[in-house]
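Lecture notes, unit on protein representations.

Consider one protein chain, 356 amino acids long.
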Amino acid sequence: MSVDAAFTRKLPKTELHAHLTGSISRDCLHEIWLRRKAEEPDFQLDDPLEALPAGKADYDIDTFFPLFSKYIYHLCSDLPSIEYSTTQVLKDFSNDGVCYLELRTTPRASPTLTKDTYVSRILDVIDDFDWKDMTTYLILSVDRRVTAAEALEVVDLAIKYQRRGVIGLDLCGDPSKAVDVSKFREAFEKAKDCGLKITLHFAEVPSSSSDEELQALLSFQPDRLGHVIHINDAIGEEIKSRKLALELCLSCNVSAKLTKGGFKGHIFGQWIKEQNRGPIVLCTDDVGVFLSPLSNEYLLAAEHFRLSREDLLQLCESTSEAIFAGEAEKTRIRAHVQAMRLEMRAAQSTALDKGA
């Protein structure tokens, strides 16, 4: 049977590269805007349905980051907005068939809340969410534009809330901004020493893909890498030899023109053929902006790289080796996948019997 949207929605999927603020739907942003306009007569931001036109997903590196710094962060800057948007994001992922979610966010302060309160309230929402078949953990992100001291502040928050579900540390931010990433070594070493896992935005654009930067990032001993678009053969071999897990985001990279050749030219096609590599995980990155839920990423992978239903089941199964949680979660993911595999085989058998 061919792969269709119903099948990929039902797949028990693992999402490991999803930015909280970038995953907020436009309808949710609109609802937040309506509340704030009603409660704050002087609230000046435009309606999200105008700021983010319906169907627009072609944000590039120059328009993507200002969308957050100049708009979304200001709209979602109070506790009710953060709590409501987090709840809606969790619902959206759960409704799309995600069974395991690692959500990431950069701790943000505003006039009405501290970075500590921001992280704590997101964890409260996660704790209160009726998770059904989806478990959720939190990754705290360090923006590459901050100072070394500010990065250590994020690490301290991650350590403080480790027992409540903060599971890792990320390095993110505008990759077109030239920085010396080695300034973050102390922060990531401290995180690693305290048992936090490490994921890094890696080789996202050519300007942040020099050998010097990529070797510095690899020296942080990451567990996973995100994007991994602009690498040379030597870096690729090192990634492969370490069996690092890769978080690959098809629609984000194609829509933002971070990769050439459209979907068929995406680096996913190269990595999926490699032998003796680490796990590959399809991810959304910012579904609220690029409008492609995880089920659609699997559908796109099947369409452009000729993957079968069993190929997608194996892909879902292998993601269990990339997650930051322990063996119990890995076993749960594999059990979900095996249950769907058995269900699919039973349906095929029934169809054959009826046709006989």
